[in-house]
Amino acid sequence: xxxxxxxxxxxxxxxxxxxxxxxxxxxxxxxxxxxxxxxxxxxxxxxxxxxxxxxxxxxxxxxxxxxxxxxxxxxxxxxxxxxxxxxxxxxxxxxxxxxxxxxxxxxxxxxxxxxxxxxxxxxxxxxxxxxxxxxxxxxxxxxxxxxxxxxxxxxxxxxxxxxxxxxxxxxxxxxxxxxxxxxxxxxxxxxxxxxxxxxxxxxxxxxxxxxxxxxxxxxxxxxxxxxxxxxxxxxxxxxxxxxxxxxxxxxxxxxxxxxxxxxxxxxxxxxxxxxxxxxxxxxxxxxxxxxxxxxxxxxxxxxxxxxxxxxxxxxxxxxxxxxxxxxxxxxxxxxxxxxxxxxxxxxxxxxxxxxxxxxxxxxxxxxxxxxxxxxxxxxxxxxxxxxxxxxxxxxxxxxxxxxxxxxxxxxxxxxxxxxxxxxxxxxxxxxxxxxxxxxxxxxxxxxxxxxxxxxxxxxxxxxxxxxxxxxxxxxxxxxxxxxxxxxxxxxxxxxxxxxxxxxxxxxxxxxxxxxxxxxxxxxxxxxxxxxxxxxxxxxxxxx
Length: 543
Known about the structure:
By secondary structure, the chain is α+β, with helices and mostly antiparallel strands. The chain contains 16 helices and 21 strands. It has helices at residues 29-38, 64-75, 138-148, 168-181, 192-199, 214-220, 223-229, 262-273, 293-307, 338-343, 352-359, 370-378, 425-429, 477-494, 499-506, 510-522; strands at residues 16-19, 42-46, 48-50, 56-58, 91-96, 99-106, 117-118, 121-129, 132-135, 202-204, 210-212, 235-240, 249-252, 283-284, 287-288, 317-322, 325-331, 387-391, 396-402, 526-529, 536-539. α15 (499-506) packs across α16 (510-522). The radius of gyration is 28 Å and the shape is elongated. It holds the Pfam family SLFN_AlbA_2. Residues 12-136 form the Schlafen AlbA-2 domain. It comes from Phascolarctobacterium succinatutens CAG:287. Residues 450-477 are annotated as: Disordered.
């Protein structure tokens, strides 16, 4: 709250602007009104000046009442100002040492009212950056117009594309995950096309035929197909854990050695950043409890970043992990006030189709509780609270999640694992397999490439070739029992399992998966059917 009785202690900033108004309303007033309304709101002080040392001084205005009347007449004139977002209480007159000033409190405009522009010209739209107003570029105006639509941009049916834009292996991975989380779901037996229609990944265009939706393209498409609709689409994961190399690990959507879509990026990134959180070994019945409130917060933060990105924007999505923090940046601004987003209870996602697809596999909050949950998870830890900011020109949102050091996030007793295994977190951490350095996992399991190979980059190659993913084959006997229990649970729900699927749900190498399956055969729990490449495993009691 501005201390109106001590105005001279303030300086101009991105939420405060002082203007002299000795001879009438200044012409620059309207650009500042547009800028504040299109950004995060702010306060305009008429009759106040700023000196060379950036100190404010009250000069006063002549005939404040007449100026207020003139102000309302102009701001309600749609040929001058596109929309008036003010109420009567937003314009007040105050007196200081016999001098009157006019205080105008401009709220952040609702997304469906943006852009606020001048003189009937969309390109006379302004935004605020630091202490100044700047005229919006065509791209920024287009972004505001997209957000103004009642229908989110990812619900668009792309009539110029066919269903061959989808990576079938990504769809297979998604369906296996959904089966594990929602066994017996009514969509489980559907063919892929019908299933994709139900989840909103395809829709009917004016020609009556099925085509990908923008959400489906982003979630399941090949990167080279995605950029046909989203020319600036770019997903970038960067990891720097020491000072000796530029990147300890890096992969980008445009490298060509993986699908490059959002679904696969999510799990590849999560399996990297989850290593920042140590997990004590514990079991809940037959399922390992390897989830904490911080794990949930990391998943929520990553999902929020991908779901709320403006993929038509210029800056893409960048996730960067270092020893002290995890930073997530996405193109676009918040569609609601930042304080409202942090406080929770209000949900206005940019891509509602993506939310539906993620929610079907128990990822992402739908009720506006995502950011509060993230901040709550950091409460009581040994490090600083998260920091989230909106940045302008270009528009982007940046979330910084502080961590103490690699693998040393401070857990409190309140954050110790306590989760029902059927809620999906167990499978979540096991989405991608770690490939064997001698035997790469094909098809469904090939979500994480061999980290000994440099990942191609359109900008630069990854320099470090010796960083490897920890070998998940090093297990303890209790973990082996748990792995067998997970395999048994999967077979009970799905009747059969393959070595590929076992490797995926256990997060082990194919060789380790085959060893576990062989042990279960010897123990008489399961039996092998088929031969060569069609080998499957069923319960011993199955005929």
